[in-house]
Design a protein that fits this description.
single chain; about 70 residues; mainly alpha
């Protein structure tokens, strides 16, 4: 059975591909964690962009948490 979480995961991976990422800049576990915490797709994409440009996942996460972009 396909869950909403797995549908959303696939949608996020497709979003990265649509915007030119041949590989997802986030680990699968990081995407799953953000989905579990109910972060918006836009915020997940922004964190991925930051990670692709050299920031660590935790650094990007702390930045977006401090701005209140979590959900």
């Amino acid at each position: 059975m396909i869950t909403e979480s797995s549908k959303r995961f696939a949608s996020i991976v497709q979003m990265f591909a649509r915007f030119g990422f041949t590989d997802t800049p986030l680990e699968s576990s990081e995407i799953d964690q953000l989905i579990t915490w109910d972060w918006s797709d836009d915020s997940i994409y922004s964190i991925g962009c930051d990670c692709a440009s050299g920031f660590r996942f935790r650094e990007a996460l702390e930045y977006y948490n401090s701005r209140g972009d979590a959900a």
